[in-house]
Design goal:
There is one protein chain. By secondary structure, the protein is α+β, with helices and mostly antiparallel strands. Helix content is about 45%, strand content about 15%. Strands 1, 2, 3, 4, 5, 6 and 7 form a seven-stranded mixed sheet that branches. A two-stranded antiparallel sheet has the order 8-9. A hairpin with a 5-residue loop joins strand 4 (about 120-125) and strand 5. The radius of gyration is 20 Å and the shape is globular.
Length: about 325
């Protein structure tokens, strides 16, 4: 017997979704970091921060609560003005931010700080929260837009943090179960350790299915449809959205999912052919397990997909 919406909403609300008290705690921790970092940036560098936005899964309300296999991170976008996007490098900006963060937290070990491809990261051991400081060179001609740099290959991509938050909010407004479906998919992804399948890509695949197929069917059916879509399509068809502006370039990457706020950005460009195949096989296996679990009302099978903490009612 299939799981009801009530059962999966219970699982989402009580075991997947970040609870309100933790959200408040993380907000306060991030706010303190941002306040101190902005002051240090102003006093110790020539960087001009014009705007700070909490972004990513945290701002979109698709983040999972922290467990041993579900890390919690918050993206904080620092919009920077007075820089030439044609010549400025993320390497220089990130190094400055990295140095300021180390100075800001003198009692933390260096292992708690990292330089990512597009961000400087600080991890708080007590709460387990990781904060990615993402510098974006502001586009003064377009509200909310700017350029992110990759420190490894020097490439830059245009982005708009408020637009990405609005994209998910619009889908949630069109479908009350949208965020639940995203969290279910992210939990499955973490469970099977499909690291190349990033959270943003999951959000966009789920949005594509909503846009093209509507919101008919139960939450369980639509989660199984997500798995089946990935398995059957092989992620070989390019995905784009009504928000995309033309022209949309032709990409040759194994997986093409166009960023709805920047048509020249393929958010799945780093998925290799081998990783694409791995994702597709995993989705096919998961679909078979989910179908069996649904038909047989087999809780043990659902736990194969979501882990041993899966439950749909109070103990």
């Amino acid at each position: 017997m299939p799981l009801t919406n009530t059962q999966l909403q219970y699982y989402d609300s009580n075991l997947l979704r970040l609870p309100a008290d933790k959200r408040k705690e993380y907000h306060a921790q991030v706010d303190r970091l941002v306040q101190n970092l902005c002051r240090n940036v102003r006093d110790k560098t020539e960087i001009t921060v014009t705007r700070v936005i909490k972004a990513g899964s945290f701002a979109k309300f698709t983040i999972l609560r922290k467990t041993s296999e579900d890390p919690v991170d918050v993206d904080v976008v620092f919009y920077i003005s007075g820089k030439d996007a044609g010549t400025e490098t993320l390497d220089h900006l990130n190094t400055q931010l990295y140095d300021l963060l180390i100075a800001q937290y003198p009692t933390k070990s260096v292992e708690d700080f990292q330089i990512q491809r597009k961000a400087a990261t600080v991890t708080f051991v007590g709460s387990g929260l990781s904060v990615d400081i993402v510098p974006v060179i502001e586009d003064e001609t377009r509200e909310g837009y700017g350029w992110q740099y990759d420190i490894h290959d020097g490439t830059k991509v245009e982005t708009c943090a408020p637009c990405q938050i609005k994209f998910v909010r619009d889908r949630k407004n069109a479908d009350a179960d949208f965020r639940t479906l995203v969290r279910l998919a992210k939990k499955w992804r973490n469970r099977v350790e499909l690291k190349p399948l990033k959270s943003f890509a999951i959000e966009l695949i789920m949005a594509h299915l909503l846009d093209t197929r509507g919101k008919q069917g139960s939450i369980e059916q639509r989660f199984r449809d997500f798995l089946l879509y990935v398995a059957q399509s092989g992620l070989k068809e390019a995905i784009s959205f009504r928000e995309n502006t033309t022209p949309v370039p032709q990409f040759t990457d194994p997986v093409v999912i166009i960023d709805p706020v920047c048509s020249s950005n393929n958010v799945a460009s780093r998925i290799s052919e081998a990783e694409r195949q791995e994702i597709v096989v995993a989705a096919g296996d998961a679909w078979e397990i989910a179908n069996f679990a649904s038909a047989e009302n087999d809780v043990a099978a659902w736990k194969e997909l979501f882990g041993p903490r899966f439950r749909t009612e109070d103990l």
